[in-house]
Amino acid sequence: MNRLRSTGLALAGLLVFLCIWEAAPRLDLVNPAFLPPPSTIPAAFLKEIRNGGWLVAVWESLSHYLVGLAVGAGAGIGLGLVSGMFRWFENLTAWIVRLLRPIPGLAWVPFAIIWFGVEPRAAIFIIAIAVFWIVFFATQGAVRGVDRDLVEVAQAFGFRSAWSRLVKIMLPAATPGILVGLRTALGQAWMAVVAAEIFGVPGIGQRMMQASSLLSTDIVVVYMLTMAALYGLFDTAFVALQGWLLRWRP
C-alpha cells in the first residue's frame, strides 16, 4: 500500500511539473523559442527519427561513451588497486594526484584537440579523464578499507605474494566499493559526453549545439531526454549486474 502511494505521489509530481512546463510558454511567461512546451517534443523526436539524425547521433555517442568509460574505469581500477595495496606507490604519486585531480575535464579539451584532432579519440580521452578519478579513488578507498585481519589470515594460509592477496582477498573484499565508484562513473561519463562532443566530434553533443544555434530548442530537449533515458537503461542494467556479482552477500 505504501509503495502504491509513493508511486502515485511520484506520478502526480511529474504531472504537475509537465503542466507547469506546458503552461509557461503557452501563456507567454517564457518565449517558446527558448523553452518549447513538452507537447511539441514527440513531433520533434519523430522528425529526428525520420531523417536518420537521431540514430546516427546516438550510435556515435554510445561508441564514445562505452570506450571512454572502459578506458577510464580500467585505468582507475588498475592504479587504484596498486595505490591501495602499496603505500610506497601512494606516496610516490601523492603530489601527482594533488596536481592533476583539481583540473576539470573541460580544461583538457585544448590538449585533446591538439593531440588527437577533432576526432572520436579526442572525445574518448575527455570521457576517460572524467571517469578515471572517480573510479581511482573509489578503488583505492575500497582496498584501504579491507579488514587487515583478513590479510593476516590469508598470509597465515600461505597467500603471501601480492598477486595471491589481490585475487583471494583484496579484490573480492573491495568489489562492493569498486562497484559504487563504477555506478557513479556511469553518470559522470554521460555528463562528459556532451562536453566531449561540443567542439565538433559527431554525436549527441554536436547535434545539440547545431540545434541550439538554430533555436531548435525542441530538438535540444529531444536529445536531453535521450541521454536521460539511456542513462536510466545503463543504470538499471548495472544495478542488476551489481546484485548478481554480490549475490554472495547476506
Which parts are unreliable, with pLDDT below 50 for 5 consecutive residues or more? none
Number of domains: 1
Order of helices and strands: HHHHHHHHHH
Number of helical regions: 10
Helix content: over 70%
List the helices and strands and how they pair.
Blueprint: H1 2-26, H2 41-50, H3 53-85, H4 87-100, H5 109-116, H6 120-144, H7 148-156, H8 162-197, H9 204-213, H10 217-245
Family: Belongs to the binding-protein-dependent transport system permease family.
Keywords: Cell membrane, Membrane, Transmembrane, Transmembrane helix, Transport
GO biological process, one term: cellular response to sulfur starvation
Search tags:
250 residues, mainly alpha, MetI-like fold, 80% helix, 0% strand
Task: Describe this structure as you would to a colleague.
With 250 residues, the chain is mainly alpha-helical. It has a single domain (41-246), classed as MetI-like fold. Helices cover 80% and strands 0% of the residues. The longest helix is centred in the last third of the chain and has 36 residues, at 162-197. The relative contact order is 0.12. InterPro entries: MetI-like (IPR000515), MetI-like_sf (IPR035906).
Short structural description:
The protein is an all-alpha fold and 250 residues long.
